[in-house]
Write a structure and sequence with these properties.
With 409 residues, the protein is α+β, with helices and mostly antiparallel strands. The chain folds into 3 domains: 8-152, Immunoglobulin-like; 159-271, Immunoglobulin-like (Sandwich); 274-408, no CATH class. Helix content is 18%, strand content 44%.
Amino acid sequence: MSAFSGRSAIATAFAALALAAPARGDDAFPLRGLGRPSFLVDATTEASAGDSVDVAVSWQVPVRELAFRAEDDVLRARYEIAVVFDRDGRQCAAELWERRVRLRTLAESHDQQRLSRGRRTVRVPQGEYELRVSVTDRTSGASSTASAHLDARARKAGIGLSDLRLVRYTGTGAEANPSHDVPLGETGHVVRAVVRSAVGGEETVELRWRISDPGGEVTLQGDSTVTVGTEPRTVDFPLATDRLAPGAHDVEVRVVGKGGGERRHLQLQARLTPAWFTIHRDEALEILSLVADDDEIGALRAAEGNSWPDALASFWKAKDPSPGTEENEFIRDVEDRVEQATTLFVEPFRSPGWRTDRGRVWVRYGRPDRRSTSTGDFDRPGREVWEYDSPRRVFVFVDRGSGEYWLSG
């Protein structure tokens, strides 16, 4: 464990983790923290020693999510990773690590491809855990959390299944996709698993896979029969990105039949692209009506057929806050808000999340400056209050018992 000054920082980080809601699904790694700063964390069982196992925890944080300060002609940021292993409602192990990031230019801090990575190993007793992870920016104080089930037991004999990975085939070959971001409409993406027999000889096994959206609904599924031996066998499952909705998705691959029982999960983030808006005109108009004025949305609705792509391109161009740069920040902002709303606001009767009342306000105005919640009881409904400072806006959402939050007033 890295050295830290004072026990209060550790206590505060672990207390915050105690409030984190568990993620849906078992072994949902790599796990994505969707708050700010966002992060991606993976946990794998590396080796066993008697009744204990070594769990490797690796993470990556986009540097653009961190707050930097200018010090001695460089930019510096500092963040902490807190990891807690819970079993049967009790904390069994906890670690806290600090990472420092140093950059030379402001442009580097805005680079979407630049990541801060780390990896540590924690020894824990064999068993099944709820692993909770928090990333805290020490400069801004912002913190995000995520959690998932972790099976930290020595591997059983039978069919072994590796951790899942995302790969994209291009004209120059296969490229790994460690960020797990998948642009919608982009071709060549596959989910890759490696299978082997742990008992010797050849066996024919069935692999079943499925992809679930943030609400738990299965959007894609299939199966594959493969013959495996002691030599590893690579299996690719094609990813139909044109059939995915924006936001977070859970991918599960499991072995069924003889030697079965192994399963692995992977979380991917389906990213919106300008091409998606061009292809999905009706959904695009719903979203753009939240960020366009009456004249702009009227012109877009009037554009049909071959005129739609040109009208959409003109709209994006007119909204670009910095026309002289390569990136249109307005497009990226809209895409981020829709993806976040889809993932965060899962309601039983309204889907996707950007169609809910909370999702629509999120897409229009972005993340609120303050967000407070109160649980309901027999006398009072549950409520969420969102506050924006500039300009001053307050929104109250009420849950009348159905699990849906409706805008009040």
